[in-house]
Design a protein that fits this description.
The chain is mostly beta strands. It folds into 2 domains: 135 residues, Thiol Ester Dehydrase, Chain A, CATH 3.10.129.10; 102 residues, Thiol Ester Dehydrase, Chain A, CATH 3.10.129. 13% of the residues lie in helices and 41% in strands. It is built from 2 helices and 11 strands. Strands 1, 2, 3, 4, 5, 6, 7, 8, 9, 10 and 11 form an 11-stranded antiparallel β-sheet that branches. Helix 1 runs antiparallel to helix 2.
């Protein structure tokens, strides 16, 4: 297990002083990479040839995280199948768990753009810890309230010249009315990644709201690239 404590700063937060949703996934990606390297799941000889790609994630938060909070993020590998790798995260504040995230990953041959077998690369996959939950599998949307288009910009891209998966969360957050955040805070977010979006590509984004549930989906050339569910709750006033 890898543990890292982060002091949440002003650039991590929105106008209410709450940590923005994409920040959690940025930290998850960073600590997952460090942990994978420590465990030998990602080696120097794999750089540029193979990469771990997140397929599904579900984050659950019991309470908001604010500016100046000292937050400990934990991640560990879990018992996995030959094709899907499981990784679990927890979020702690003041010594108590306030959130957790379940995620599925797969290993990709970057040149062939095909799934690779970890066993053939001699990667250690003997973990016996069973992930206590699973990411939510989302169905493609069948209707929507709002539609817009988005073009992948320089600041959206990652080292593979595609839209970084954390940028999907920022895009989805921006699809929600600004005033809604005044009295609501994030409770749960699930993301299913289906197809990479290359730099400079223009794709369609759809949103549907049902009470405090938001479904956001990106499509390009009629193919679903990602589907996301964001669930909020009203802020409780003391």
């Amino acid at each position: 297990m890898l543990r890292e404590t982060h002091h949440m700063g002003i650039t991590d937060c929105d106008y209410k002083g709450r940590v923005r949703p994409e920040i959690f996934f940025i930290v998850f990606g960073e600590i997952a990479t460090v942990d994978a390297m420590n465990l030998g799941l990602y080696r120097p000889d794999m750089v540029g040839r193979y990469g771990w790609v997140v397929v599904q994630q579900t984050l659950k938060l019991n309470e908001p995280v604010y500016e100046q909070d000292e937050i400990t993020f934990n991640t560990r590998t879990c018992k996995s199948s030959l094709a899907v790798f499981n990784r679990y995260y927890t979020i702690e504040k003041e010594g108590r768990q306030i959130g957790e995230c379940y995620s599925y990953w797969t290993l990709i041959d970057l040149e062939k753009r095909m799934m690779a077998r970890a066993k053939k690369l001699g990667l250690p996959m003997e973990e016996e810890f069973k992930m206590p939950g699973r990411p939510k599998k989302l169905k493609p949307m069948t209707d929507y309230d709002t539609h817009t288009t988005y073009t992948v910009k320089y600041s959206d891209t990652d080292t593979n010249n595609h839209m970084n998966n954390t940028r999907y969360v920022r895009l989805a957050s921006d699809m929600i009315d600004y005033d809604y955040y005044e009295n609501h805070t994030l409770k749960e977010i699930s993301i299913n990644y289906r197809k990479e979006i290359p730099a400079m590509s223009t794709f369609d984004v759809f949103k549907k709201q049902t009470d405090d549930q938001f479904m956001i989906e990106g499509r390009m050339d009629d193919d679903v690239c990602f589907t996301m569910e964001m669930i909020f709750e009203a802020i409780k006033n003391d």
